[in-house]
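Q: How would the structure tokens look for this protein?
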Amino acid sequence: MRYFSIFHANLLQQATAYLNKTPAEQYAADGFGYWNAPLHMTDEEFASFVAAINELLDKVAANKPTSERKTRLFASMMIPQLQKPTSNGE
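A: Here is the predicted structure in token form.
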């Protein structure tokens, strides 16, 4: 729990610093955003999903800074949801 709290606090600090210094009209142009979405996947589908994301990240993670490139922080977290029993017992 300690490391999660540190991770979350760091993200909150960075987002707060950005939001306090950037006009809202600039968010879309900068690519600022956050979201969450429930995804329904088997373990195999999830493994494929994670592999695809990792492949995309690998393509850009090695990019060196240049005057044309902006640094953007990508943060990710997957939270397994507790399964609620259905009315038919499944």
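Helices lie at 2-21, 27-30, 43-61.

The chain has a mean pLDDT of 91.

Upvote if useful.
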